[in-house]
Amino acid sequence: MNMKVRFATALAACLLLAPQARAAADKVTFGLDWVAEPEYGGYYQALATGIYKKYGLDVSIVEGGPQVNNAELLVAGRLTFDITSNSFLALNFVQENIPYEVIAAGFQKDPDVLIAHPGTGDDNFADLKGKPIAVSDDTRASWWLYLKAKYGFSDDQLRPYGFSLTPFFTNPTAIEEAYVTSEPYLVQQQTGKMPVVLMISDAGFDGYASLIATSKKLVATNPDLVKRFIEASTEGWYSFLYGDPAPAFAAIQKANPDMSTGLLHYGYEQIKARGIVDSGDTKTLGIYAMTDARWKAFFDQMAATGLYDKNMDYKAGYTLQFVDKGFGKPNP
Fold it and tell me: What residue ranges do the domains of the chain occupy?
């Protein structure tokens, strides 16, 4: 082959590859429901290690927090996807005729807990009947209703919750809501003792948590983008849980300098030890697994409390289109 032919062949190859090389990655804005923490480790791992880029995605992670309502930003079209904290919000989309739906379940177990002081006799949920409990307004309209129905709790027990451990430290009989990956560690650091930790999932509460939601319009018009985001995030979680989590740790602390190394590692170990991401149906269906049966069980639980009309079309709040493919099955 002479020089001119080789040049022409090479030029033709470059021209064929040029459109792909020039194609810009799809921009995705992804909103968290709180500040950067190990609970979002899979997403920061996918960002820090280039997994999102590998899937043709230019992802920006937007932190949440007490002054940020990313659910509102999602509905307003300012986010592509968001973390929808729990299954209630998915059903609320249906109840309020909001055209958004859940596309994946990040947590198979809800990390919400109640914490109590050790040695006070508050060792299980049944022990808490009739005692003051501090929970947030959102919780009062969600899993508090489940505890009322199961354990006979009453609204007379409710006390204000200010997203602070100060009342817990100053009141030796305090009981308040918390997150299993953070507050127990902080209590131990302050008092030298681990609090009593009661996970609502251990009480039989069957809701998913840390779900991913997006608009029904995006699901209908660009399912490939949705698919790539879920698959890339799955790969991020797999790398975070079973590989080296250091890239995610560094990215989390860069985004949230207040995150101590001790708390970061504690949260990570709790996620792994309790199977928050990779338990239950994920063993056969892969990370982000959801099933109609579990959604029905959750809906039936909450409809029985009166929170939802029993005839509501709860299936309109989620889709199984992008999950349950066996991708990201946990390590044995």
Answer: 25-109+207-317, 112-203
β pairing state of 158-159 and 133-134: parallel
The model's pLDDT over 188-215, given as tens digits with 9 standing for 90+, comes to 999 999 999 999 999 999 999 999 999 9
**pLDDT score of 251 more than 80:** yes
CA distance 308 to 329: 33
CA distance 148 to 140: 10
Q: Report pLDDT for 210.
A: 97
3 state SS of 103 = strand
Architecture of domain 25-109+207-317: 3-Layer(aba) Sandwich (3.40)
35, 36, 191 from 258: Cα distances, Å: 10, 10, 20
Show the tokens assigned to 227: 């698919």
Please tell me whether residue 104 adopts helix, strand or coil conformation: strand
CB 55 within 8 A of CB 281: no
Homologous superfamily assigned to 112-203: Osmoprotection protein (prox); domain 2 (3.40.190.120)
Do 82 and 274 contact (CB within 8 A), yes or no?
A: no
Are the folds of 25-109+207-317 and 112-203 the same? yes
Phi, psi (degrees; rounded to nearest 5) at 264: -60, -45
pTM reported for the whole predicted model: 0.90
pLDDT confidence of residue 18:
41
d(CA 132, CA 122): 11
CA distance 39 to 43: 9
pLDDT, tens digit (0-9, with 9 covering 90-100), for 21-73: 346 899 999 999 999 999 999 999 999 999 999 999 999 999 998 778 888 89
Q: Average pLDDT of 246-257?
A: 98
- β-pairing, 100-107 with 81-86? unpaired
